[in-house]
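Honest question from a wet-lab person: if I give you the sequences of every part of a complex, can you actually get the arrangement of the whole thing, not just the pieces? Trying it with mine:
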Amino acid sequence: MDIFYDAATRVASRSILDWKAAGKPVVGYTCSYTPAEIFHAAGILPVRLRGIETEGMEVGDTYFGPFICSFPKCILQLAGKGRFSFLDGAIITPGCDGMRRLDECWRKAGEDYEGIVPSYFYYFDVPHKAEDHGMKWYIEEIRLLIRGVEEHFQVTITDEKLRGAIRRFNDGRRLLSRLEAMRCEKDLRVSGTDAFAAIVAGTVMPRDDYTVVLEEWIDSLGKRADTLSEGKKRLMVVGSVSDEIDLFELIENTGKAIVVAENLCFGIRYEGNTIPEDDADPVEALAAHYLGSSVCPRMFGKYRERFELLKERIARTRVDGVVMQNIRFCDLHGAENALFERDLEAMGIPCLRVEREYGPHIDAGRMKLRINAFLERMGARGKTAAAI
Amino acid sequence: MSIVAGCDVGSLTSKAVIMKNGRIVGSHIIKSKPRPSDSADAAMDGAMAAAGVSKADIDYCIGTGYGREKIAFIDESVSEISCHGKGAHWLLPTARTVIDIGGQDCKTMKIDDNGQILKFTANDKCASGTGRFLEVMARVLGVSIDELGGFSRTARAPITLASTCTVWAQADVIKYLNSGVPIDDIGAGINTAMAARVAILVNAVKPEGDIFMTGGVAKNIGVVTTLEKLIGRTIKKARKADPQMAGAIGAALISGERVKGEG
Amino acid sequence: MRPEIREYNYDLLMGKTLRAAAMVPRGTSKETARTYGYIPYFKGIAKAFIDEGPPGITFLDLLATYYENILTAREQGKKIAATTFCNTPAILYAMDIVPATFEILTAIGCLVWKRGMFDYMDYSCEAGMPETSCSSQKGALGAFLAGLCESIDFVVCDTPGVCDTNANAFAFASAFLDKPFYQLNYPSTIGDDRSQKYHIDDYRAMVAFMETHSGKTLDYDRLANILREIDRQDALTAELEDMLMLVPTPVPPIYGLMTYAGRFCFAGHPIYTGLLESMVETARSRMAAGVPGLKSGDEKLRIFMCYIDHYTFDMNFYDYLGERGIAHTGSILARNFREGNKYVENLPDNSYRVDTSSPEAMFESLAQMNARMPMVRSIRGPYDQHGMWLEESLACANLYQADCIIYNGTPGCRNTWGMVKPYARDLEKYGFPVHIMYDDAFDDRVESWEASKERLDEFFHVRGLL
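Yes, you can. This is the full assembly:
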């Protein structure tokens, strides 16, 4: 668990530093649409770029304007302070407007702060639709990315290597599915904080190590006798990007709640499904998974589909209530949370909708108040999702 | 007959209420001090003096408000949302939608016929929908909060105020003052700006039943009447006690429930 | 929402107001002057257009017709498509579908009413839209969500990846009102083979979607007529653009608004051609007489609005420009990027051509034209990339001899606020003083117009421009 916490709470975690010390490259990526398997197949450590441990915001605020979500600002702040010096490359995707502008802001900051732009800086153009020509475009983008990585890092990424990477990542996905199944049980052996730390760690740790440690850990959970769910409300966390362990800790430290599920872009939301390992074209298999099974509101016009998936997960994980958070200025999740709340409350599922800032918890007090009031509200009603 | 107490430490004011047999026997309100524990002590001391009781007489005390975790003498802390719901219900038993505009946030709650919270929303990412906004504006105009409230009635052409950000709003107010715009029009514009922001929150919960306001801003007649116009409903008033005390009252009521073994 | 706002539908109120305004100048000048006395509330905005002469009067008629088309769509058996300004309505007219363009419907309300579209914007937030989303959609959106407009049959937009907050508003409308939705989405580059092909594939899918949901097929004869009308419109616009290059320019500041609003409402429709003809004729005669387009008669400064204009009460922004003697050399909304325009010379990938020789050629013309609409053209990729916002802004500002560049947008504009500071800095490096406005083009509750004006004056003064 310590390895997971280290990976989840530190930008330059132990595993990254060890990898670098062995002389191997690291490439960061901003968004869940980047097939990390590509880098694994090239012997590169893929690392999800995050904004934890940010101090101050002078760099972020200099390039980004004031009306921008704090997530890309935190990433830029860290970059400006040299905290990403371990990166040999960065892949920027148009996850959303704020995140796509990280491309120019980071490069422009690089004109003022020497050495903060990784030598391989690539814009990976992900479409906002998964059908037909959208998928075709995405497949081409993946092939272009592969060629770019091959050229820059002087490696060859064969289909065989890609299949091998897919297999390796699938091992992790299968393990995380086991974790997910455990969290659906009535008697819980794992806290949301621990589970989330393990999930987030997977986005920054070398897959070979991660899979081994994850398997050991999940096996050990199976042997735990104690249950953590006594008298606690089961919650799901939904909404804007979050990789913040302290958010989960804040909820669970009330002693009255346990997070049994999340619908965030760090997590089982996209990890859960395995990718076919024997497809003739592994690139197409990757594309179908990464673009096709996405559940992000950036894929506009798919609210109904996402709501069905959410409902299904709520039923499966037996949550008592849903905490919907959006980072201020995240209009996509902000609007979708409102629709979710409307539709879930109509089904009798209590929801807490809250707007917040990403980053070092400047509004922990506020969040605590909201969570507590929400738990008090649920305590009085005594109705669970299972009863619906 | 048990004696119970509630202590609500807010950002602008701190309140304490002592109840016996469901009735208020003592209460006190003070301007909050920098340290929540000092505010709680001062408020409680005042309430106890008014009630003629000592700490030893109090069977149970609940603390609420943003500073509640720092109060040493309380038996339990409960969110101010739940306390306001209970307090509002006591003040107006028919209340089903509660609007609380406090010093630093604005909340709306739907409550059931026991004062239990069914739903709540809050908006506090900036000052412009809160008591802080009115305080700042009143100071710029050089009037009291009560006087500010009165301007909505006497204004002929209320200004449209830059209301999304308190800083911009201040700059606007100063400019209007310097241009000789009547103070009534400026004051009315301020009340309207405030009410408009609150109206969005209120309408978002789809108010049902009687609507009641708690918190200090409930006493600003300008904001209240403008808000009524915007949401198209009247906001009921209660005479039992000062609506600003709703949080502390609710805390005391919940204390009573605990003593009876109900909560 | 205030109960009284629910008394009348927004589109009905505004349509009738605009039609009445369009009829005011029909009498003698004495009758017109008399009428103003009866409409104290609307006098400012009505005069702003009527005093421009035939172009302004034609514009009022154009706007009234736009609203009336929405109001009479049902009885004419036509479907209504909610769409965005960067998606040309030409295709909708080719398919006999009525456009309801959110940003136009919002902007008009903001110009005509003192309270702007506040009630409807706030209603959007009550319904669940975040407060931080762009006000340009929020106004009209609120009216539709509240059922205070004719109902939408389906939603089409082309802003994912270009302006997500815009696309989000349309996706929200679709989810909230439970209406079919199609999004065109543009790649981050322009002019290269891949993206050119993608434009066509995507456009084809959109047309198929609209055929399904409107029950009408794309009529290529109709399309041919529309494209020929666009040819005429583009030629007239090019002439206005040429006159805008003159120093001083005979083109008044308000012509830019009328040019692009007319285009977003009626591209390919003769009513827009009429407006352009009127503008060109008036500008030509001014040019012949050596009269500058500014009411003050004295052109003291030339500004380039790199993004959008300001649309609050009574044309306050345009009046301000007129008073100060400031010529408006265009905005990101103003230029169509039709091949052959001078500003396109260094940005060939950004232009489109019109070819009516075959259905395929026509379709491609439309798809590529749509891909060159404002924002989707140059906001789609990193601003310093070839053909994107920086290059485009510099090309225009240089060609039209702007003395300075001003950014005006809304707090909801994630895509520009994400890089406007480095962009402004780069423009300064090229020798242009730049002013960033922190207001909202559609909502004076963010920054009052008085405050915006003060800051503009301060900028002009401090940089020695005025």
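Two things worth pointing out. The longest helix of chain A spans residues 159-184. Chain A touches chain B through 15 residues (CB under 8 Å).
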